[in-house]
Specification:
By secondary structure, this protein is of the alpha+beta class. It is built from 7 helices and 3 strands; from the N terminus they run αααββααβαα. A hairpin with a 5-residue loop joins strand 1 and strand 2.
Length: 143
């Protein structure tokens, strides 16, 4: 197989990220979180929200950073995402200045929906049907 084939195969979302991509993503996550925490983005929407950056996923070639964000309380996600998109050029420049990479990655912002998914699972686990099933499967019951 050619080297190009290996590079292309690392871009699909089902592939396992490399250590290099994980490390770069974590460094970029810290840089973005610091920029947002210090209020360096002069946008009233961003200044008015506390924004968490739980994860940054990098492509294998480190040219695209998908930054997952969540405003505190999960409110105004669309407004915050639009504000981040408006300030994408500034944020990319700041990342390039702070992070020592050969090329500044393009950035895109997505809402982190893991919190909603975890809450949905918690609600399911607390339903009477699941509680009943858990009670009958307890180690004390005879088989």
């Amino acid at each position: 197989m050619s080297r190009d084939h290996h590079r292309e195969s690392g871009r699909d979302s089902g592939s396992v990220p490399t250590q290099r991509a994980l490390r770069a993503g974590e460094v970029i996550r810290h840089a973005i979180a610091e920029i947002l925490a210090r209020g360096e983005v002069h946008d009233p929407v961003i200044e008015g929200h506390l924004i968490t950056v739980p994860e940054v996923r990098m492509t294998a070639d480190l040219k695209l950073a998908t930054i997952y964000v969540m405003p505190l309380g999960g409110r105004d996600t669309d407004i915050v995402l639009a504000a981040l998109e408006r300030n994408k050029k500034f944020l990319r420049g700041e990342v390039a200045r702070r992070v020592n990479l050969k090329f500044a990655p393009d950035v895109r912002f997505r809402v982190d929906e893991r919190f909603d998914e975890a809450e949905r699972i918690e609600k399911l686990l607390r339903t009477p049907a699941v509680q009943r099933d858990l009670a009958t499967d307890s180690p004390d019951s005879e088989e």
